[in-house]
Amino acid sequence: MPRLRRDHLIDLRPLTTSPAFARLWIGSTLAGLGGQLTIVAVMLHVYELTQDTFAVSMVAVFGLVPMIFAGLYGGMLADAFDRRLVALLAAVVTFASTVLLAVLAWTQQETVAWLYALSAVNSAANSIVMTTRAAIVPRLIPRDLLPAAAALQGITIGIMIMAGPALAGVLVAFAGYAWTYSIDVVLMLSLFLGLWALPSIRPEGEIVRPGLESLKDGWRFLKRAPNIRMQYILDIVAMTFGNPLALFPAAGAVLLGGGSITTGALTAAVAAGAFLSSLFSGPIGRVRHHGIGIQRAIQVYGAATVLFGLVLGAGALGWFAPPTVDATHPNIALIVLACAALAITGAADNVSSIYRSTMMQAAVHDAVRGRLQGIFTVVVAGGPRVGALYAGTLATLTTLWFPPLIGGFIIIGLVGLIVRLNPRFREYDALHPTP
């Protein structure tokens, strides 16, 4: 029995096998924690200034186009230059935008326009960091440890989102926005330490200079990579119809009560699920058919999204509610149920992410890995932003509980149909990775 328990726990060999990977992982985790403080603080800040859920969703939308271009161009840079240097320069831009947010908050000069603009710059630069860092990882550890490295990334996400939003809610409520942004500035310094200690990592194989030809070369590879294309499509479906993040501030203010603390708790619940699924990710690394794993994980994600919509619907009906529901009188029962549903979405999305990341890093050649990781980063980071627009717009036209309810059903049905029509994806074998 003890051996069985060990086999089910996360594989830590990437940290002990590669000190460079370990330093990068620690630095990225601490910096990511600070980044979550800013993400949640900006959402709360915009909601405080506007009292409008649609305005909150527009934070994500304004950053979408810059993030797409930055992710694609960052991938070209990662395939042409020293990946360590590319990541360091992009991290400088991320750091500068966070510093400016803090300065504006301390001087009380912040406006909705500034919050939109700096969030866009931050997300664009961070997409380059994410793209380049993901292209670096396969050069630091052997291929058989890639699933374990992806699971460790789930631990990172869990720590970031579980602690970050909850801490952000408390900091905003008791210390204010300026202190919240400033703490992110301090934590971001760890990212530089992780990147600075890396060796020089230049791409292998034929190098294509950044530009139109580089983009075409990456596109030609993607056209010959049906499994990679399919995982992009499935993730877009999940994140478009199953990402209710933009609804959290209004849910905390109107339906569930608890205000900013509830907003942080809901976001943290997603991360708690991701953290726990990574902690017990031992069996995931032994699964060979990653396509089937992705399908099942996303459909579980859709079912849990439906459950979250039902909980919000119960809040609209006043179930289990105290006489008054507001920032100081939360509906504890429904908040717990909502957090449970969101924890399941986090766990399912993390399992899908482990399979998708492993497939990307194992099946894609190093010469084009940066560009494909750029597209992967755009999909992973851009999908939730499209989802924020979907949720915010539909909630404005209908009610808060409707977008996750209908979106979850769409995910379950559409993912099942798409995978059924693509048998090659179902048959993907991790022992013989093919893009």
UniProtKB/TrEMBL annotation:
Keywords linked to the UniProt accession: Cell membrane, Membrane, Transmembrane, Transmembrane helix, Transport
SUPFAM superfamilies for this protein: MFS general substrate transporter
InterPro entries with a match to the protein in the record: MFS_dom, MFS_trans_sf, TM_effector
Domain of life where this protein originates: Bacteria
Major facilitator superfamily (MFS) profile domain mapped to chain residues: 183-435
Membrane topology classification: Multi-pass membrane protein
UniProt-annotated location(s): Cell inner membrane
PANTHER family: ENTEROBACTIN EXPORTER ENTS (PTHR23513:SF9), INTEGRAL MEMBRANE EFFLUX PROTEIN-RELATED (PTHR23513)
Name this polypeptide is given: MFS family permease
Lineage: Bacteria, Bacillati, Actinomycetota, Actinomycetes, Micrococcales
